Amino acid sequence: MFNIETLRSKSDSDLTKITSDLGVKIAKNSNENDKIFAILDFQASNTKVAKDYFTATEKPADSPETPAPAPKKAPVKKAAPKKKKQKVRRKKPLQQLWNLK
User: Fold this and answer.
1) Has residue 67 been placed in a domain?
2) If you average pLDDT over residues 29-34, what whole number do you get?
3) Angle, helices 12-22/47-57, rounded to nearest 10 degrees
4) How many domains, the chain?
5) In the chain, N or C: fewer CB atoms in 10 Å?
């Protein structure tokens, strides 16, 4: 897709060609800024057409390169929590509960 920096780096004749190829209507006496903003406005409302034109005409070197994705770090495994020992309650004989002898 076009951005303002790449369009400003193009000559007036290149901008005129882009506007005519896309079918953007502009005045004959329009300056470079008028053409740039007309292209950007057209692109905002007709994204598919503008994207198809951009990919067909622009060189891949002009588009910003996407950096290679950083290698993913291996997930750190957490140590399993230690199980707490539960006290086992033994049933005591009734005599011991009431201290009966």
Assistant:
1) no
2) 92
3) 130
4) 1
5) C
